[in-house]
Amino acid sequence: MMPVGLLLGLLLAGLVFWVMWRQTSMPAMIRTALRQDEFSMVYQPVVELATGRWVGLEALMRWHRPDGTMVSPDVFIPAAERSGQISALTAWVAERVLTETRALLQADPQFHLAINVTGDDLLDGRFHASLSTLLQRHGVAASQLIGEITERVFMHTGQTGAQIHALRALGMRIAIDDFGTGYSSLAYLTRLELDYLKIDKTFVDPIGTGAVTANVVSHIIAMAQSLGLTMIAEGVETEAQADFLRAQGVQQAQGWLFARPMPIEEVRQHMAKGAT
Ligand code: C2E
Ligand code: CA
Ligand code: CA
Ligand code: CA
After folding, report:
1. Could you report the per-residue pLDDT of 65-74, keeping only the tens digit for each?
2. What transmembrane ranges does the database entry give (predicted)?
3. Strand pairing partners for 262?
4. How many angstroms does the Cα of residue 60 sit away from the middle of ligand 1?
5. Of 51, 186, 199, 256, which residue is 20 to 30 A from 161 by alpha carbon distance?
């Protein structure tokens, strides 16, 4: 029998090693992944609730490792934010999505593409200028691009407010992402220039379940309406949720009920068949 003290010591050493390994190897893995093209993009359709028509796409990143495993964006995006690599990822995403979607966007000037933008991107004073160059190079109108920004970013406004202003001056649209999950100050909502409010899945889930939390979504909707923001409900999985949101005046939605995120070839096939 191993003494308990030794066993605990070994466990602790293992834990410390694991934590250190995660911290040191993740940035290196991300660097390698960028170099060796392990990242790819999928696109989730955004539908107009009144008609079911596809009005746009949200671009979402995927990481398939050479060993066959997948790393979730909920793991590698926060890791890249911590290690200061997120701006490199956003730059990669912007280039890739415009390459993949420009034909679709040019074919329908009303169709939009949303990308996720982080706090670091907004703190980079050249972000809007590099996006502008990229849009011109790909021949895509800025008005077709939506930048999705999470609430957390607004904890340090000031700088970010100026960058949002610059993006909107280009003609880009801004969506507040994961609304209601983060920083609950409503002051920034009135202060910042926003176009869309994305209702987080947390508030869509309880619709129709009879849970008290089901009422919260009605308040979010009323607030978005009073601010004149277009609403996009996230994570819509049932007809009951879609019916409720439609009846409440929510204009657009995303969710497995309509379509899962898919590679660009699949988007093209659906659209060629007249999914929109
Ligand atoms: P998000 O921006 O809130 O994206 C929505 C997430 O909900 C996506 O997860 C999507 O696949 C998932 N989803 C959509 N419809 C449904 C549904 O009906 N049911 C359920 N259960 N899930 C649904 P995903 O792709 O795993 O991305 C997770 C998060 O990672 C994103 O949350 C976003 O914050 C971040 N992320 C993903 N791609 C990028 C990227 O290119 N750049 C940045 N900065 N962040 C990204
Ligand atoms: Ca998003
Ligand atoms: Ca979201
Ligand atoms: Ca989310």
Report:
1. 999 999 999 9
2. 1-21
3. 43
4. 6
5. 199
